[in-house]
Specification:
Blueprint (H helix, E strand, L loop, with lengths): L35 H13 L5 H10 L1 H4 L12 H10 L2 H15 L7 E9 L12 E8 L4 E8 L5 H11 L6 E4 L6 H9 L3 E6 L4 H13 L4 E7 L4 E10 L16 E11 L5 E10 L5 H10 L2 H13 L12 H18 L7 H10 L1 H7 L3
Parallel strand pairs: 1-4, 4-5
Antiparallel strand pairs: 1-2, 2-3, 5-9, 6-7, 7-8, 8-9
Length: 377
Amino acid sequence: MPKSNDTPKIKCGFSAYFSELKDPRRIMKGNHLYPLEELLFLSIAAVVSGADSWTSISYFGRTKLDWLRKWYPFENGTPSHDVLGKVFAALDPDAFNRCFVCWVDSIAQLTSGEVVSIDGKALCGSGDKTNGKSALHVVSAFATANGLCLGQVAVDAKSNEITAIPELLELLAIKGCIVTIDAMGCQKSIARAVRDKGADYLLMVKGNQKELKDQVEKLFSVAPVKAAFSSNDLGHGRIEHRKCEVIDQLRFLDGKEHWLDLKTVIRITSQRTIKQTGKGNTETRYYISSLGPDAKLINSAIRSHWAVENNLHWSLDVVFKEDTSLKKKDHSALNYNVIAKMALTLIDQEKSTKKSKPSKRLIAALDDDYRAKILKI
């Protein structure tokens, strides 16, 4: 039976940033018993609490209906998994992402010099070999100090990340930040896009820019090193010695004028030894940057880049089971990716306990008050 709407409702903090999102059912036939705002709140509350499919989100809704009605009317109860699947398959993912970016921007506190790592990840479950549909790639920007995904852009192939990165940068407020990108993003247009946003770039140079890489390697044999910094890491069962060397005299670097505000080239030499076996290896990597010759800062920024893999992509795969998800229909996978990133952000922002992300999700499933704390309501 429909619930009376006499009791005032208190909406969650993120609702204002999604209020302008257009309901795709406006152009679909039939009666719509569940407002889009309620579907968003249900889905995010459920995913925070451990749900990872439309079926489990629907089950959460049925079992937690009384709790949900503290915040929204849910006059017609909660929807089936079919309703959830159809709505999120039809929802405009670009509009949903823009709302997400605005919401994150409201809670992020980016400081000058913060590292923003940009990297792509395949949504493995979004592919459909039967219908010849490749898995989607999502390029994300991750603020490493804040531990926040700032936004994302989806492409239908990894090679298209080059065009997606400037689109992503256009969405972000990153003035004063350091943007790190792997070799795929070492492009003149991307360097310019970063500088146009008032940020500095730090780009890995590999074989896709062979002429540039050869020149950078040669430069280290003919130009003096302006600054150097060494560090040691004794964790993860290995000993790693890293040396960061920076050159700022670039007169022998052909074509440097095509890279906007290029100031330095960098060489990172990593010597790793496995403690148990004593076996080791040495790896050398090269970068270009608009940063000045501060070797300690550059070394720290390069190390911070991998937070996008360890803290964002790993969490989405292992904690939220994104790679095993089978959300193939239309925009379903992309929109669930946004929901999962919202849930991850909210979980990371909850600092009253130092428990792991899976533990926080379990507590949220069992404890209504803790779930409300995570959702900031």
